[in-house]
Prior knowledge:
Layout: E1 5-13, H1 16-26, E2 35-48, E3 53-67, E4 82-99, E5 102-118, E6 124-144, E7 147-167, E8 173-196, E9 201-212, E10 217-225
Antiparallel strand pairs: 1-2, 2-3, 3-4, 4-5, 5-6, 6-7, 7-8, 8-9, 9-10
Amino acid sequence: DNGRGSYLFAARKSYVGYLVRRINEENQFTNSPPILNFADFQAKANYDLTNQNQLGFSIVYGEMSFDRNRDRDLLGTNTVFRADSKSLLMNGHWSYTPNPRTFWQTRVFGVRTTFKNVNRDEAVLEDGNRTQYGLRSDISFEVHSQHRVEVGAYLRSIGIDSLSQQFFFSGGLFDSRSFEHHGSEAAFYVQDTWTREDTGLSLTVGSRGEHSGITEQTLFSPRAAI
């Protein structure tokens, strides 16, 4: 729209699995190669609402599958027969530049990864998902020709849910372990950079504080650079 926006789309798919399947069908191997398939997709868009405001969005998705169907009867009870994994990343941002001295950008994101492995009897060996989503906001403003102040915040939520199992040779359940945990993290920082262009000297002083609800730790980190 009048040169105010841009976008990009791309997709890929591997055909190795198709070739391996054809080779397996034409040759009666005792231990045939497993079939692997990969695919991914990504999209990105940016749009200038005004001269001071810009919105952006991106998404990346990928998946993988693994199959040993021809060797099913040769596999042990704790050997992976079929597996699949999927990952999704979404990201959005808003940038605001009210004047040449100030820049403010806020990003939100979400990530989800799932995976599942099964044995020759279609019983679950590994099953789980990982999720996290959060927000990051940074403001940079020039309070003086020699001083630039930066302030930012970062918030993130993390979730893990997994199951792991092992079986006897006869197929009975031998061991089963599950894990589920959710937590949040928060971090904040502020710093000031003083610059003298005539001398080529720059001095930065700041501090960062962060708290993890996963480990229940709170840390403060001073920072200085010259």
